[in-house]
Design brief:
This is Flavodoxin-like fold. The chain is built from 6 helices and 2 strands. By secondary structure, it is mainly α. It is globular.
Length: 138
């Protein structure tokens, strides 16, 4: 029996690109491993979320419609972009850290799927690229 560890981090729930990708991946895994079990951790519902919904909403609000509070919510967001390649790749320390930790506790099959660059490429294009990247190799 396969165990699937599903870690969710977006506080946007149903409107989140990463949650849509997660749903597709878990569905594919359960189709392939019908007797598999899914263990879910929703990091956005834990006591100290890394981002709240007001931050995400401010990120995607047009700049000319942002309030002063929105500006405070996203003060560091100008550092965001595409971290899987290009000049920001060296700053993607979280992916390697999480992969190392998961390997350390015995998880052997680890895949990273991204829905990045939404502000650059557009939400739908980024989501489509992310969804197309979900291919099971297990």
């Amino acid at each position: 029996m396969k165990q699937i560890l599903h870690i969710m981090s977006s506080p946007k729930e149903d409107s989140s690109a990463s949650r849509k990708m997660e749903k597709k991946l878990v569905q594919q895994l359960l189709e392939k491993y019908a007797d598999g079990t899914v263990v879910e951790y929703d990091l956005s519902r834990m006591e100290i979320p890394h981002l709240a919904e007001n931050h995400i909403n401010a990120f995607f609000k047009p700049a000319d419609q942002r309030t002063e509070k929105d500006g405070q919510d996203i003060i560091f967001s100008d550092k965001a972009g595409v971290y899987s390649e290009g000049k920001l790749k060296d700053y993607d320390f979280v992916t390697n850290y999480v992969q190392f930790f998961l390997e350390l506790i015995g998880i052997e099959v680890i895949a990273v799927f991204r829905a990045e660059g939404q502000a650059i490429f557009g939400r739908e294009e980024s989501l489509n690229i992310g969804l197309q990247s979900i291919v099971l190799n297990v």
